[in-house]
Design brief:
The protein contains 5 helices and 7 strands; from the N terminus they run E-E-H-E-E-H-E-H-E-H-E-H. By secondary structure, the chain is an alpha/beta fold. It has one domain: P-loop containing nucleotide triphosphate hydrolases (Rossmann fold, 3-Layer(aba) Sandwich), CATH 3.40.50.300. A 7-stranded mixed beta sheet has the order 1-3-4-2-5-6-7, with helices on both faces. It starts with 5 loop residues before the first strand and ends with a helix. 33% of the residues are buried. The chain binds guanosine-5'-diphosphate. The site of guanosine-5'-diphosphate has 18 residues, from helix 1. One of its GO terms (molecular function) is GTP binding. This is Probable GTP-binding protein EngB. Pfam families: MMR_HSR1 (PF01926).
């Protein structure tokens, strides 16, 4: 799939105010600074669609973008930034949990993790939360250009192992990406396209 149009629709912190159009929706979420804005801009061929920022935790809203006039891409707030929330319980702000629990259009979430790092507790907690809430999700590894091609498999295998250790028997679909080199772009977009066509 090629993205021809990507249109900003609305930002808000109230699930009830999200667009009502019944078209499939995919939500992108991850720790602040994981590379979410860069990934969204890369996928949509638009350098400015999502705001990349040097100040983590800046975008604290649910942002809806309409893609090719037939699905929504949702940019959710980054989590796990100390300034935004103090206790582990507070990391997922209420409106985010409401979003996952109430948003009927949501087809799949994508949890972004930096490929360089070992599985982080906060990401595993979030992944478990999605599992417990019955939200389908995939994992997108970001910043793959920062490690050698030869070590990509080692990093993803270590992550898979952490998921197994965390009680996940089956590993969710995962994608290795780089916003710098556009590595993995087609895989992510084709995955979404495939689901939309089913
Ligand atoms: P966000 O807070 O998750 O939206 O993260 P950003 O997209 O703002 O990226 C955080 C930082 O990581 C910025 O300095 C980006 O330039 C950098 N970055 C993001 N994606 C990549 C990538 O694929 N490769 C490299 N080398 N840097 C990246």
């Amino acid at each position: 799939m090629k993205i021809n149009t990507a249109e900003f629709i609305i930002s808000n912190s109230d699930v009830k105010k999200c667009p009502t159009e019944p078209i499939p929706e995919y939500a992108f979420i991850g720790r602040s600074n994981v590379g979410k804005s860069s990934l969204i801009n890369m996928l949509t061929n638009n350098k400015n669609l999502a705001k990349t920022s040097s100040r983590p935790g800046k975008t604290q809203l649910i942002n809806h973008f309409k893609i090719n006039n037939n699905w929504f891409l949702v940019d959710l707030p980054g989590y796990g930034y100390a300034k935004v929330s103090k206790s582990t319980k507070a990391i997922f702000q209420k409106f985010i949990t409401e979003y996952f629990e109430k948003r009927e259009q949501l087809v799949s979430a994508f949890v972004l993790v930096d490929i360089r790092h070992e599985a982080q507790k906060i990401d595993l907690e979030f992944i478990n939360y999605l599992g417990e809430s019955g939200v389908p999700f995939g994992i997108i590894f970001t910043k793959a250009d920062k490690i050698s091609k030869g070590s990509i498999q080692k990093h993803t295998a270590a992550y898979t192992k952490a998921l197994h250790a965390n009680g996940w028997e089956e590993v969710p679909p995962f994608f290795v990406t780089s916003s710098e080199s556009e590595f993995g772009k087609d895989e992510v977009l084709n995955y979404i396209d495939q689901i939309n066509q089913d």
